[in-house]
Specification:
By secondary structure, this protein is of the alpha/beta class. Strands 6-5-7-1-8-18 form a 6-stranded mixed beta sheet, sandwiched between helices. The chain has a 4-stranded antiparallel beta sheet with strand order 11-12-14-13. Strands 2-17 form a two-stranded antiparallel ribbon. The radius of gyration is 20 Å and the shape is globular.
């Protein structure tokens, strides 16, 4: 993008032009409540009306498998590609992940059935109002009480209490993590190392109850995208493997089952140059008045020095406003970026300024975030490549 003649020539993207996730009708937070409602779990609402109830439901969440990535790779993912028309109850439409489109936020939305403004994991890193420190909600550092940070029960816990056979099948490494505790606990956790083992055990768990709700997960596609990009041979090789895993599970479904294949976000590759990677640690304008930089490259929470909130908002709009949707906290809340309501405990976790990328750009921080700043594939914002996720369906 050529520099404007002056900052007076910049026309910031209107906050209202950001494509807000479809909370309440077609987001990740609506999936498990819809399935649980079909299983007769009290208090659950069928928010995705296109889905038909089944006695046995399995959700296979593939980290990083966006809708647009499936559409773009029919050769590497022939089984998944053939299922695109089945998505969202046969409408051939995707779901939206929620904002930001990042793993900790999305997994909490899936497991609690709540949008980010309610469950309270609204970013990769956010400020803990009790301490003033940034908290990494994926790694749970620094540690804080999980029950205080996210007090709502998970859908799995509610299903288990209602007599539904609930189970999660994932890597053993995730069994006792705080993120699993607040987002995905309830029923039985079964740790299995290989993808094939997880598919086989998930099928067994589906058959273990007359009413079943089973979740299984695969992370390595996302890791390949971060390290090498979604244009890489490594990522395509992982996609081919994932395609075989889905088919393996689908071919083992017990009677009266529905398998739903979804994801927590998609991904975009961002070139390694100064035009596409804006370095906060090297940019005095962006740093001015900022006390903490949270979030991630495409979905930033910016915490201002007290009294500098308006100046930071003005500066970030001037510098980034043609490439990012830049909103104040109140504007983002009013626009519904984090859902229809914001719990009081969550309000101050959100940045004073919130920046969501529209273009293929990042706000990196080379000194304070060296590992994240080196990633090829990135996600977090509201563009279709990041926000749209599949809800592919196979029934037995």
């Amino acid at each position: 993008m050529a520099a404007p003649a002056s900052w007076d020539d910049v026309e910031p993207l209107p906050v209202s032009s950001a494509p807000v996730p479809a909370y309440g009708t077609g987001s990740l937070a609506d999936l498990l409540p819809t399935l649980a409602a079909g299983l007769g779990v009290p208090g659950m609402t069928a928010a995705i009306p296109e889905l038909t109830p089944a006695d046995r439901n399995c959700v296979f969440l593939i980290d990083g498998l966006g809708w647009e990535q499936i559409k773009a790779h029919p050769d590497e993912a022939p089984y998944l590609h053939a299922l695109l028309g089945s998505s969202r109850g046969g409408t051939g439409r995707p779901l939206t992940a929620g904002y930001p489109a990042t793993t900790a936020t999305s997994l909490a939305s899936v497991g609690t059935g709540l949008p980010p403004g309610a469950h309270g994991l609204p970013g990769y890193t956010v400020r803990n109002p009790a301490t003033g420190e940034l908290m990494n909600q994926l790694r749970w550092q620094p540690w804080t009480s999980p029950a205080v940070w996210q007090p709502y029960p998970t859908v799995f816990q509610l299903a288990d209490q209602a007599g539904v056979h609930a189970a999660q099948v994932s890597s053993p490494a995730f069994q006792n993590t705080p993120l699993t505790k607040v987002a995905l606990s309830g029923g039985t956790f079964l740790g299995r190392l290989t993808g094939e083992e997880r598919m086989d055990v998930a099928a067994e768990q589906l058959a273990a109850g007359d009413r079943s709700l089973v979740y299984t997960y695969y992370a390595e596609l996302d890791g390949a995208g971060h390290r090498y990009g979604v244009a890489s041979d490594t990522w395509r090789g992982q996609l081919m493997y994932v395609d075989r895993l889905v088919q393996r599970l689908a071919e083992q479904l017990p009677p009266r089952s529905a398998l739903y294949v979804t994801a927590d976000h998609g991904m975009v590759d961002v070139p390694f140059d100064e035009q596409h990677r804006i370095d906060f640690d090297e940019d005095w304008e962006l740093r001015a008045g900022v006390a903490l930089l949270g979030g991630e490259g495409r979905a930033r929470h910016v915490y201002a020095v007290p009294g500098a909130e308006n100046d930071v908002l003005t500066c970030w709009r001037e510098v980034l406003g043609e490439q990012f949707w830049v909103a104040s906290r109140d504007e983002a809340i009013a626009a519904g970026w984090f859902g229809p309501r914001i719990d009081e405990r969550v309000h101050d976790r959100l940045g004073d300024v919130i920046a969501a990328a529209r273009d293929d750009v990042l706000i990196i921080a080379s000194e304070r975030e060296p590992n994240e700043s080196a990633m090829v594939g990135n996600h977090g914002s509201m563009t279709p490549a990041e926000q749209l996720v599949p809800l592919l369906e196979v029934r037995s």
